[in-house]
Amino acid sequence: MFSIEIQCPPEQHDMVIADLWEHSPAGIVELEGGGLRAFFQGGADPVALAARFGAVSWRQEADRDWVEASRANWEPLAVGTRFFLVPEWRNDPAPEGRFRIAVNPGMAFGTGRHETTQLCLEALERHAGNGARVLDVGTGSGILAQAATMLGAARVWACDIDPDAVEIARIAAGPDVFIGSADAIRSGTADVITANISAEAIVRLAPDLLRALRRGGVALVSGFEQHEAAAVQAELERCGGAVREARCKGNWVLVEVGVTLVGGV
User: Which of 87, 131, 176, 196 is the most exposed place for a label (fewest CB within 10 A)?
Assistant: First the structure.
């Protein structure tokens, strides 16, 4: 058994953990002051893993149940005013007035710990109720699609280009999850679109995101940092979007955008 130590800021933990789980660690713990330690069985290559993740060090470890040690680091998390996110191995009940969502950290992006996921959940609280039709692009774990259903959306579709993510998301979000992206959606389909992906992906998908949005609807786009926000907003506006507002959590941004020149009826 050995471990590698990866130094990264807390806002990057969710993405790095999801990547680490692709390499079958025995467990992962968050370190005080930032950073992660991932534990691997002896058959793995410590040098290759350290290079892959830019680890600052690796070391041999005593025999221990590192899966249990890793799980001990994951506590329930209240997000917004309506959600309570609980690791799937815990049985904590949701406080009154909150929806309980079980998450499996590391299975796919979207455990709720990352600022962009929290921004999207909070935005869904404002927009996804009252029978809205919701599309989640790049659904990852399916947490946003599941949240939209809990909030009272009439219909929720979700998609991802990763077949493994789609399989995971269907467990949480139901059968209306497909392999693909916004280009497969009919024009004017959704009242609310979420896209918690990256600046580059949003810029590339901007025409289809706005085309799939009904007039009067809103696209909630996130997954990028403050220094990328201007370029994302400029491309959305170039494609006919009308930026309503931008919200920040830490260094991460969510932009709410409606339709002006393109989209559905």
Answer: 131
Positions of E strands within 43-132: 57-60, 77-79, 83-87, 99-103
- Per-residue pLDDT tens digits for 48-85: 999 999 998 888 887 666 566 666 667 899 999 999 99
| DSSP β-bridge partners for residue 60 | 2
In words, the CATH class of domain 2-71 is alpha beta
Tell me yes or no: is domain 110-259 CATH 3.40.50.300: no
Enumerate the domain spans of the chain: 2-71, 110-259
- 167-190 pLDDT, tens digit per residue, is 888 988 888 999 999 999 999 999
Q: Buried (b) or exposed (e) across 3-23, using 16+ Cβ within 10 A?
A: bbbbeeeebebbebbbebbee
Cα separation, 235 vs 202, in Å, equals 9
- CA 148 – CA 82 distance, rounded (Å): 11
